[in-house]
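User: Can you model how adenosine-5'-diphosphate sits in this protein?
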Amino acid sequence: MGQDAFDMAIPQHFTSLTGALCSLFGEGTRVESAGRISGGDINEAYGLTLTGGECIFMKSNAKEKLSFFTAEAAGLHAIARTKTIGTPHVLGVGTDEGRGGFSFLLLEFIRGKSHNAGYWKDFAGQLSDLHRASTVGSVPNGKYGYGCDNYIGRRSQVNKGYDSWTGFFRDCRLEPQFRDAAQYFDKEDLKRIVRFLDHIDEILVEPEYPSLLHGDLWAGNVITGNDGRAWLIDPAVYVGHAEADIAMTELFGGFPPAFYDAYQERIPLQPGYERRRDVYNLYHLVNHLNMFGRMYLSEVKRIVGRF
Ligand code: ADP
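Assistant: Here's the modeled complex, given as structure tokens:
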């Protein structure tokens, strides 16, 4: 499949916030009030009430961080086009010269209700549909990866096309994180890490079919939509093995058993998943080591030491 066939959404790009609001909601539209929303670690988030009464969601960051938002918009679009699970509609991205210059992402505002009955079972069903959706057109030069690089937290995530999942996960996920974290390891650790990476294809397995992954599926990135169902936000999408998404759900606490039971009715986890789970989550743990420092080091060493 050539580059031309790659279906990457290019969000509407604006050169000022006011310009964006006028273009999206009509001439003269302004921000009536802005309420800060907490919960994210990377960007500033706001609920904006507009002069016409509409409410929208905005994330902002320094002007040079615009690529965070174009990548996030592309990821949200990729999930939305599978028509399997809710994600906020992307209104646009842009930069603005005001307040010293900033970049922004405008999204549909999701006003969460309480969970519907069957929330976790439905979420599992929707996620399994996402994982079984066609990935045709998502990876220009291979089966796994993605058509563009994006971000995991505030760090970049490489998404070259690979025909082998294990090769992709070694070269584009674990290896770049370990390379950036080299300062935390002594010579013996580094030898152990190299041996571990060299044998990764004896630990991970090729999936039956490629899946579009959310890529950063922890509880903070699942919000309840206006329909009382699970909606996905803040993705770090790529095409890979579905079990990598399930592994991530278990990293910081996990979801209730009803979720895993219902998911497994649709997509049973293959034998040896628990062992592979720790390898997938190593990617996020070393990323956290790179972003937040040493408190993640002992867990990283413990996992590497087990293999
Ligand atoms: P960051 O990019 O900094 O990690 P998040 O994507 O986690 O930011 O969003 C920050 C906060 O905004 C979270 O509490 C999240 O629940 C909320 N949020 C994210 N997207 C929306 C939306 N479309 N509508 C309403 N709230 C949202």
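A couple of observations from the model: The longest strand covers residues 55-62. Residues 1-7 have pLDDT under 50 and may be disordered.
User: Helpful, thanks.
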